Amino acid sequence: MTLYQLNSDLLTIENPQVVRVFYKDSETGKDIYPSATLGENGINQQNLPAIIAPKISGYSLRNKKSIEYQSASVSKEVFLKNVQELPGDFFKDPQFLASLSKEFDKSFGGNPLSSLSNYVDQSLATRGFPNLPYSLAFIMAALAYDKKSTNLFDYLQTNVTKFSDSDTIQGLKLSTNPQAVVFWYNKNSSTPTTPTTPTVPDTPSTPITSSSSSSSAPTSSTSTSTPAASSSSIASSDNANLPSYVAAKGAAVYSVNKIGLYKSTKFSAANRSAWYTKKPRIYRPMFVVTGYKRAANGTLRYRVRDVNHTSKTNGKTGYITASQKYVRPVYYATKHSTVTVINPRGVNAYHKANLTKKARNYRQGTVLHVKRIVTHNLTTRYVLTNGDYITANRKLVNMGRNKQVKSVKTKRTLNRYSNANFTKKNQVIAKNRTLKVYGYDYSQKNNVTKHGTLRYRVAGGYITANTKYVRDYK
Asked: How are beta strands 179-187 and 19-25 bridged, if at all?
């Protein structure tokens, strides 16, 4: 379960042992009614009252798969993977990672949420890391400095996703893991009566006995003992029954880990038409979703078109995984007060939301202040405090302030090249020279099968960013 499934307002909750309830449009996946929170300041395994779907003006609860239930747990593996992506060999040392893994287990145990929530999503300068071992506090500070998330909800993984056909869900218990309930609605052709407030009865129905809500999902009021149907049983032709995190048809997604493009939903070597390796953020392979289909085992696939215009794979069509471990939306869905330009060629600002009437270009490393986020077709734009519009494409901008390397000092003699691929040497630079850094880029930017290597752009060309050759100064 990720930030997109639980919505950004989940990050403001101090007590993680809550159940979030959402009311969404089946077609768009957008919220149509304010979300609710149940179980704040509760205790583990506390029974919750039955939750009844409200009547919402202009919408009717859909007949099939009307309730989606999800629970999640913290993934230590995801946390450690983010640590290993920090710059420097120290963060990849096996002994250090083994020690960090033990500290993680010792500090958070079987209930990491109640501990980690005491300081996630807070200013490190003002709140700090109380009661943490030095190694974990150091890593959290490093993750924040490198602009990776220190928010625990970015390290969640889905444990349970189940559907039921009802207007009521009962038998929920608070757990050490977060839970979410989504009521799915279809838009009416005509407007019905005024909406009523979502109902949570004072007297709950008899809860279903369960050792943990993450291992035994609740049932609807029309089925007192039979578990709800798994999401894998959703018909591939019924887009309204797709999970809430699924990208809309026509929207852009990119791969965050190595994936394959296949001719059919059967992912085999014989059906594979292309590999896409894990690339740096600014060059992640991008696709447009053209449809959905499930494999024989029920696993959801995206039908896509490759839109990596400078790659040899451009225009290829086929199927890729829809798993959020591998594929994410290209565009931000929520506002961030500041964003940093990460595209080597900068980002253009415009006077219009459709990105016409260019105002200016902001170079890589520029921190921009955002007033709000707006939607344009299936993309989003950030409105700056000066009223201009920029793209909210994650390949071009990154949330928050991202510190850039301002200069380097050479540790040994090195070569300067005219391009990031280092195919044409144009100067030899001596040891102990200080060079101003104007930006960064990667080699192999047009090759979706090779990761690429970080380079620094200096006066006259590009040099290596390898710490064996240069010392960084930010």
From this structure: parallel
The structure tokens listed for 150 are 């220190």
Tally of domains within the chain: 4
DSSP state of 48: -
DSSP 3-state of 198: coil
- CA distances, 110 to each of 75, 104, 359, 413 (Å): 12, 10, 52, 51
**Domain residue limits at 164:** 1-233
CA distance 19 to 179: 5
Helix locations, 28-169, DSSP H? 76-84, 94-108, 112-116, 124-127, 134-145
Q: Are residues 150 and 201 in the same domain?
A: yes
Contact between 70 and 158 (Cβ < 8 Å):
yes
pTM for the model = 0.52
Residues in contact with 260: Cβ distance below 8 Å, sequence separation at least 6, in sequence order: 267, 272, 274, 275, 276, 320
Tens of pLDDT along 430-447?
999 999 999 999 999 999
**What's the pLDDT tens digit per position in 260-280?**
999 999 999 999 999 999 999
* Domain CATH for 461: 2.30.30
